Amino acid sequence: MEIRIAGIVPESFVDGEGIRFAIFFQGCLRNCFGCHNPATHDLDGGKILDTEEIILSVKKNPLLSGITLTGGEPLLQISPALELASGAKSLGLNVWCYTGFKFEEIPADAEELLQNIDVLVDGEYIDELRDLELQFRGSKNQRIIDVKKTLSAGKIFLKSLE
């Protein structure tokens, strides 16, 4: 399946816990002031890759803890995001996803994708709430959500970081 991406970082240590394969989705409608990835905003920018090629690259690195779907906005490309997430899960990897949507605002058609995400960092970046001391997020409004617990309980559970 085709996906429009801004780029890939094959071994990231800042986009979630452990060694991660970070996929930067191309396209975002929010244009948050102070965004650290403004080049990812153009919906027609970036390059087209195949999700199977990306999963094959992931599979080649036995040191990975998981993949991270980031951007841009991964939820603008739900089907390719699902392909990547389910592919990673089939390899025994965990999946983190960054989105500008609040968990409560995630579109209904992303339900299957959510089932394949372990950790969701939600909420748009707000420059006035920027805090360099935060782990894995840029502004204080953003939450690191344990998706499995949240879906099971029907209320938000934040992930405890070690």
List the keywords.
162 residues, 4 helices, 7 strands
What does it look like?
- The chain is built from 4 helices and 7 strands.
- Strand 4, helix 2 and strand 5 form a beta-alpha-beta unit.
- With about 160 residues, the protein is α/β, with parallel strands linked by helices.
- The longest helix is centred in the middle third of the chain and has 13 residues, at about 80-90.
- Helix content is about 20%, strand content about 25%.
What is the gist of this entry?
This protein has 162 residues and is an alpha/beta fold. Helices cover 21% and strands 24% of the residues.
Share of residues in strands: 15-25%
Low-confidence stretches: none
Assign an overall shape: globular
Number of strands: 7
Averaged pLDDT: 97
Termini separation comes to 36 Å
Describe the biggest sheet?
A: 7 strands, mixed
Query: Which secondary-structure class do the elements indicate?
Result: alpha/beta
Helix content: 10-25%
Pattern of helices and strands: EEEHEHEHEEH
Compute the number of helices.
4
What's the alpha carbon Rg, rounded to whole Å?
15 Å
Strand order of the largest sheet: 3-1-2-4-5-6-7
